[in-house]
Design goal:
12 strands, 5 helices, alpha+beta, globular, binds zinc ion, five-stranded mixed β-sheet, four-stranded antiparallel β-sheet, 3 domains, Maf protein, 289 residues, single chain
């Protein structure tokens, strides 16, 4: 077996793939991390993989898109690793009526294709849209999304011909927005909608969630395999059934988790990650049906 000497990433180079200033969120966290040197590649056009405003439709899921972004570095950047992020926005997966920001970050080893990834779901997002009936509704929307600290995208969509659609973004003032609204509201056969700009450089709230996701990735990389020292010793399986503290019946809380190493395939079962030995009877089907 290959015992990996620490630090694993010493003197290696990692390129951050971003067109939208994500180095602000990601690089401070990885400053001096395990001897890994970072460079930023703002010139690789990640928009070919899909955009939020819909000019280019995304076909992959966010993890695949993040991986494809990282792979853009192959043959283009002289680096050992590439790091890339992708987010998706919509109803929270378990609290349906609340919007959520679901972010993914991938660290790809360019030579081998091996990668580490983390995902993070946050309800801290201004993600929303509106089809305003009047200017007052626009003003209210701008206030609710914290414009101009956060960007806005305006879409004019034809009911008949998609080729006539127009998208306005990078708008900085209420005046610009008012001009567009006055010009295009109430045009027969068209729908004027306003939505939050979710591109990281126009959305500081999203930037914060990206930073939280990067922090998770960092913690994951810091967890090394007890057998070979490889980074990313992480949970691959969970077993529910933590016993109730009163009746000892299995509950839906996590009882055990399985950690695995993707290098030497060493596996280890461990108890509840929060250190719980028994469950509160509130989670028990018998004590609290
Ligand atoms: Zn019970
Ligand atoms: Zn290992």
């Amino acid at each position: 077996m290959n015992l990996i000497k620490e630090p694993f990433f010493q003197d290696k180079t990692c390129v951050l793939i971003t067109m939208h200033g994500k180095e602000k969120a990601i690089l401070p966290l990885f400053q001096g991390f395990e001897g890994l040197n970072f460079i930023v590649a703002p010139t690789l056009n990640t928009d070919i993989l899909g955009t939020f405003s819909g000019e280019v439709i995304r076909v992959q899921n966010p993890l695949e898109t993040a991986l494809l972004k990282a792979k853009l570095a192959i043959n283009h950047v002289d680096a050992d690793y590439a790091i890339a992020n992708e987010g998706s926005f919509g109803p929270h997966p378990s609290i349906y009526f609340i919007p959520a920001d679901h972010e993914w970050i991938v660290l790809l080893e360019l030579k081998t294709g091996r990668f580490w990834h983390t995902q993070h779901i946050s309800t801290n997002t201004n993600f929303s849209s509106i089809v305003p009936k009047n200017w007052i509704e626009v003003i209210e929307f701008l206030r609710s999304i914290d414009f101009p600290n956060h960007g806005i995208i305006i879409k004019l969509e034809s009911e008949i011909n998609d080729n006539n659609n127009q998208i306005f973004k990078d708008l900085d003032s209420k005046l610009e927005i008012e001009e567009i609204f006055n010009k295009y509201e109430n045009i027969e056969g068209y729908r004027l909608s306003f939505e939050t700009d979710m591109r990281a450089h126009r959305n500081p709230t999203r930037m914060q969630v990206i930073a939280e996701t990067a922090e998770k990735l960092k913690r994951k990389l810091q967890a090394t395999c007890p057998t070979c020292n490889y980074p990313g010793f992480d949970i691959v399986e969970v077993e529910k059934g933590l016993p109730c503290s009163i009746c000892e019946s299995p509950t839906r809380l996590i009882h055990k988790v399985l950690y695995a190493c993707m290098n030497c395939h060493h596996q280890e079962w461990s108890g509840n990650p929060e250190g719980l030995i028994v469950s509160d009877p509130g989670f028990c089907e018998y004590c609290n049906p």
